Amino acid sequence: MPIPSVSHSHRRRLISVAVASCLSASAMSAMAQATDEVQQLNEVSVLGTAEDEVKQSLGSSVITSEDIDKRPPANDISELVRTQPGVNLTGNSSSGQYGNNRQIDLRGMGPENTLILIDGKPVLSREGVRMGRSGERDTRGDSNWVPAESIERIEVIRGPAAARYGSGAAGGVVNIITKKPGDKFTGSVTAYADFPQHGEEQDTRRLGFNLSGPVAKDLSFRVYGNVAKTSADEPGLNAAASGVDLTDSTVPPAGREGVRNRDINGLLRWDLTPEQVLEFEAGFSRQGNIYAGERPISASGNDMIAELANAGAETNSTIRRTASVTHRGRWGKNSSRTLLQYEGTDRRYAPTGLAGSGEGTINSTDKVKSELENTFFQSELNTPLALAGKNQVVTWGVEARHQSLDDPFAVTQSASSGGGVPGLGNDRDGSSSATSWALYLEDNIEMTNTLILTPGVRFDHHDDFGNNWSPSLNASWYLSDTISLKGGIARAFKAPNLYQSNPNYLYYTMGNGCPSNYPNQGGGCYIQGNDNLKAETSVNKEIGIAFNGATGLDASLTYFHNDYKNKIHADMFDQGSPASSGNSRIFRWSNAAKAVVQGFEGNLNVPLLGQHGDKLKLINNFTYMIENKNKTTDQPLSIIPKYTINSTLDWQIDPQWSAQLTATFYGKQEPRSLTQGGANATGDALNERGSYHLFGLATQYKLNKNLRANVGVKNLFDKRLFRESVSSGAGAATYNEPGRAYYLSLTASF
């Protein structure tokens, strides 16, 4: 029970110490040693770091390993992350292209503004996937490189709290924390299978293992591996909904592609001293798709698309290799972390048409290759001190990144059609690179017993796009032991990617893609990479109130507002008068006018039985979008539900047996009102996707201390949605929601 005489300030200190000790414990080789660390922290720590503080903001939530055990994803963790407040799965724009390749979208800022981290290290493999004119990529994103059973927790950080992480975090951050070695030899094997009720929908089979323990004194290891196959939806799945029959030369809009996964990762940990830890880590992953007929533009497909879809061919594969070294240390009252990571990504893909009616459609089975390399360095020092009578923890940090890309196919589009692009030949270099570095300073200050301020500033320098300042201020004001006000404001940014900024990269369209206000003159329209782009920026704000009751009753309500500026896009109708050469018009990737994203999110957790609801509790969160649009064109940034409500009734039947009833309610989704060419959309292109809801049922049983079973039903009432068009020709109906499926998961451990 809580002790009434304990001040909120002291309780706050205990929370901060618990967070710090949890992070330290993952770096300790024995529980006794971890206990010594906690005692030492109690002596030297008053507050947590600024990073600890932002993880307690209203815009932060955590998915624990227990949550993953109770609700295992079929394969990709995005299935779990989407159940958090402020989170949806969308494409990179509102075009509807690659409609089923949906990725994590935080607060409507789009997947390109969601930064994925693994143990604090950025994951950038999707940057090696060619970006089309609409901003879409043919990729599943970067959320499927770590098997679910190898994850200790997932931290989802939204809004101003995420600005500290630099470029690409304007929407937020998803930090995947992996399981670390302990002082005992342990291991587990997990087998998962699901069984869709409708045989034309995809199923999954996966097998993974974890192994960890001591090797010698002060030396321990951890290794995990995974093999998985998620089949593709049948090519004819969306025939009835779209009105396009599957034939030898036509393919309906594609359902969900499948994927084959192979993952292996090893970590060796060396406790140099009780205060100094060194970790060496290396990993290898391969993902290959199972083709379902996906393409971004052509409505009817062609012979090759039909042949590849019917065969379930592999049309693209991605190999990711990583190597890193991390040092964590304590220097008296100070603590530090330094890491260096190399990430190499090779992507092999079937080339697609770049012009005319074949835009985006596969035209050859001979694979081409892109190579992306990322090197990342980060070092930070946390210093507890007292200034002007205020207890505080100062964080000093430095980062450096280098990124290089070589994609020869991306520059094979002819530069000489219809008059051509002046000064740009057909023999162009497909390589590009960028280097950036950053300095950041944060301070977590206990202003009073009830007020915590966390100011920060980050300076980034990009060798192509100059300097960027990212100031931030977060605050927590504790009105009582149960009620707190929290808010923040921060400036965030995203540098242009290596496709957008490469002037050798061309997209070309011969007709429908030319804008209505500058129609085709007979030579088509180009979009050219632009090395004079500005970085995208946003000013993210949030304010809210939280109630944390002593009985386990928790509630919060948060208002968020993001002012988005210089969004990079290629809507040609919004660029002003283009350059001309012969019969060709020449556009470029450009910075859009202002955009705005605002809405509410919150949670309500109600204990029903037991202490703090440990027998039965109702867990709820919601997101409500007020607006999400380009302020000049009035077009949505992405197609997302007007509201999302996630509810779970969690029942701990006895110590061995638990069950959950889950429900998700989605509001209506509105499409673009303008075509990509700028004309007014008509007919089916204006169709909304109405509100709908999904239910699920899961139960877990511990057969003994070494064997656990999990059985469940997804989409309990078989609510199915179909994709009606390849792009926005059917409005918002550009993705599938699969029907009822049953799953079984077995975990054996020692």
Low-confidence stretches: 1-45
Strand content: over 45%
Q: How many angstroms separate the termini?
A: 34 Å
Residues in helix, %: under 10%
CATH fold assignment: Maltoporin, Chain A
Characterize the main sheet.
22 strands, antiparallel, barrel
- The CATH H-level superfamily is TonB-dependent receptor, beta-barrel domain
CATH architecture: Beta Barrel
Number of structural units classed as domains: 1
The average pLDDT score comes to 90
Radius of gyration: 26 Å
| Total of helices | 7
Approximate shape: globular
Helix vs. strand class: mainly beta
Q: How many β strands by DSSP?
A: 35
The CATH class is Mainly Beta
Pfam family, one: TonB_dep_Rec_b-barrel
GO molecular function, one term: signaling receptor activity
Signal peptide: 1-32
Keywords: Cell outer membrane, Ion transport, Iron, Iron transport, Membrane, Receptor, Signal, TonB box, Transmembrane, Transmembrane beta strand, Transport
